[in-house]
């Protein structure tokens, strides 16, 4: 097998990911209209060897990139159905995390940079950090260059929140998780991007996957799940996983980027008629090939 090199650097890890989403409806649905953000893209950190999205049933589909650069498959099902299955699969080569970028505060406060990243500096209802976190972020970033300041800010969230599955939902504002001291990866990411933006560091929400078992044998398939982390800009984009207090590295596969979860929801849509009492089943399986 020939391994691909990205910019002259040998890849660190090769992962395959299968993500299955199944909607079941109590009564037949005559039509549904949906968008899926489940397919990763190649960039400086990862190379997509192959990817595909299988949908059943489907009448019409097309793929495009949204405003934030995420791959989107828009699809419709016009035949009556009581079940809709959306399965994505991807084979991705992922590099280890690079060194953090080293732009200065002077560069970040330049009017051209402020204008370029205006949307990554503005708060949303999900990422608004609240006064307490803003005050703490202001204190810990004093006398630190941007990337070191960003790590210190993310550390505040890691120290405050206890990872507690089921404690919040994807639409829970980050400030609510901060007050409770508990949340899931979406909350860690929402609070981190909000706190980073509050001190003038452009930040964006990242959705994707994290191999949950670094010690798993090559070829071993494990149960995974969707994950969320952040990227900040300090001369270049740099990924950080505040849930696990580490860089986004060779076990992270990015799928979508945006202001918050609302921009990267894996599957969303509407049904026309019927559909009362629907249920959702999600399964993610990750295999390390190298």
Structure, described:
19% of the residues lie in helices and 40% in strands. By secondary structure, the protein is α+β, with helices and mostly antiparallel strands. Helix 4 packs across helix 6 (185-198).
In summary, what is this structure?
The protein has helices spanning 105-108, 111-116, 131-140, 146-160, 174-180, 185-198, and strands spanning 13-29, 31-36, 46-56, 60-65, 71-77, 81-94, 162-163, 182-183, 203-210, 221-224, 226-233, 237-241, 246-247, 252-258, 267-272, 279-288.
Please give a handful of descriptors for the protein shown.
five-stranded antiparallel β-sheet, disordered N terminus
Beta-strand residue percentage = 35-45%
Question: N-to-C terminal Cα separation, in Å?
Answer: 11 Å
User: What's the helical proportion of residues?
Assistant: 10-25%
- The H-and-E topology, N to C, reads as EEEEEEHHHHEHEHEEEEEEEE
User: If you compute it from the alpha carbons, what radius of gyration comes out, rounded to the nearest whole angstrom?
Assistant: 20 Å
Instruction: Tell me the total number of β-strands.
Output: 16
Principal-axes shape call: globular
Main beta sheet: strand number and arrangement?
5 strands, antiparallel
Which stretches of 5+ consecutive residues score pLDDT under 50?
1-10
Q: For the largest beta sheet, what order do the strands appear in spatially?
A: 3-6-1-16-10
The secondary-structure class comes to: alpha+beta
Mean pLDDT: 93
What is the count of helical runs?
6
């Amino acid at each position: 097998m020939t391994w691909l090199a990205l910019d002259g650097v040998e890849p660190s890890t090769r992962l395959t990911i299968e993500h299955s989403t199944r909607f079941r409806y109590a009564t037949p649905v005559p039509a549904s209209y949906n968008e899926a953000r489940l397919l990763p893209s190649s960039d400086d950190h990862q190379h997509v060897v192959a990817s595909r999205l299988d949908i059943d049933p489907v009448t019409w589909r097309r793929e495009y990139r949204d405003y934030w650069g995420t791959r989107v498959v828009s699809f419709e099902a016009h035949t009556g159905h009581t079940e809709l299955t959306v399965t994505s699969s991807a084979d991705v080569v992922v590099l280890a995390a690079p060194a953090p970028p080293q732009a200065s505060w002077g560069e970040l406060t330049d009017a051209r940079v402020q204008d370029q990243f205006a949307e990554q500096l503005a708060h949303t209802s999900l990422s608004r950090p609240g006064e307490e976190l803003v005050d703490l972020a202001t204190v810990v970033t004093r006398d630190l260059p941007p990337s070191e300041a960003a790590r210190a800010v993310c550390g505040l969230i890691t120290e405050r929140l206890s990872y507690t599955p089921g404690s919040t939902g994807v639409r829970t504002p980050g400030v609510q998780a901060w007050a409770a001291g508990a949340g899931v990866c979406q909350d860690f990411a929402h609070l981190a991007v909000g706190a980073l933006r509050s001190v003038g560091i452009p930040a964006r929400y990242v959705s994707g996957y994290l191999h949950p078992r670094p010690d798993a044998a090559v070829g071993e398939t494990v149960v995974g799940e969707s994950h969320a982390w952040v990227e900040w800009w300090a001369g270049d984009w740099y990924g950080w996983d505040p849930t696990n207090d580490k860089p986004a590295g060779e076990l992270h596969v990015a799928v979508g980027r945006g202001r918050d979860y609302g921009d990267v929801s894996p599957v969303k849509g509407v049904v026309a008629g019927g559909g009362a009492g629907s249920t959702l089943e999600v399964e993610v399986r990750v295999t390390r090939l190298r």
